[in-house]
Write a structure and sequence with these properties.
By secondary structure, the chain is an alpha+beta fold. It has one domain: 2-Layer Sandwich (Alpha-Beta Plaits), CATH 3.30.70.920. 44% of the residues lie in helices and 32% in strands. It is built from 4 helices and 4 strands, in the order E-H-H-E-E-H-E-H. The protein has a 4-stranded antiparallel β-sheet. The longest helix is centred in the N-terminal third of the chain and has 15 residues. The protein is elongated and about 50 Å long.
């Protein structure tokens, strides 16, 4: 499975209904599972981003579908980062000339 970090910020709609944020997170977890995306962690944060997720998906296409589905609900805007563990990074570095 491929790992991703998702940074999310509330939209105007999302902040107006912020009291539902934990319920929405549970719904996103279930929706992700149906798509084959496993939500590992979710954190509500201070600063530029309101929510940080760590997720695993089988491929970029599945992760893109997950992100678009979240965005279509209108409560958050997301930025998705592909994450590499130490072994994956070592392999990447080994491909350098």
């Amino acid at each position: 499975m491929t790992r991703y970090i998702v940074l999310a910020s509330f939209t105007d709609q999302g902040i107006r209904t912020v009291k539902d944020t934990t319920k929405r997170a549970a719904a996103v977890r279930e929706m992700g599972a149906r798509l084959g995306v496993q939500m590992k962690d979710i954190y509500w944060t201070l600063g530029e981003y309101d929510i940080v997720l760590t997720v695993e998906a089988p491929d970029d296409e599945t992760m893109t579908s997950f992100g678009l589905t979240i965005g279509a609900a209108g409560n958050v805007r997301t930025q998705t980062l592909r994450a590499f563990n130490s072994d994956e990074m070592q392999s990447i570095l080994g491909k350098m000339g």
